[in-house]
Amino acid sequence: MSDPQIMHTAGERMASRFDDWRLFEGVRTRRIIAFLIDYAMVILLILIAVPLIFVLGFATFGAAWLLYLMLSPLVALTYVGWTIGGPSQATIGMRLTGVRLERYDGRKIDFLTAVVHAVLFWASAAIFLPLLLAPLVLEHKRTLHDLALGTVVVRSGR
């Protein structure tokens, strides 16, 4: 069991860490650019997977061709899960733009949390695109799916 006093102190340290405005300087713009880079990366990975699945389809008497039905989400979710759920806590686009995803409680982002973060992003965009404008008014420039998962995007190395 963990001591509530220790947990409270750790929470205060994390909260005070996010009080530094420099962590959020330019995050919205960097996040948009990172998304575009990552979108291109996913398209590239799909283009690599298409001929591989085609050849694999002959070896499996056509069964592998069923992967085409779910190829895009499968590639995108795997990409997000491995990159954000990895040691850098950022996709390739996020690394290039100098941002990373962090949890408010200080724990590392795992594969499942990264995948759920992506799914909630797509769901909010599909249901009502203006929901993605939340960072214009929310503290720490967070999106609604950041709020739901207790995450925040910050500048790397600050």
TrEMBL record:
Keyword Cell membrane: yes
Keyword tags: Cell membrane, Membrane, Transmembrane, Transmembrane helix
Residue intervals of the RDD domain: 29-149
Superkingdom of origin: Bacteria
Pfam families xref list: RDD
Cellular component, GO annotation: plasma membrane
Subcellular location: Cell membrane
The keyword DNA-binding appears for this protein: no
Main location: membrane
Membrane topology (UniProt): Multi-pass membrane protein
Positions of transmembrane segments: 32-59, 65-85, 111-138
InterPro entries to which the protein is assigned, alphabetical: Pra-immunoreactive, RDD
Cross-referenced PANTHER family: PROLINE-RICH ANTIGEN HOMOLOG, PROLINE-RICH ANTIGEN HOMOLOG-RELATED
Name of the protein: RDD family protein
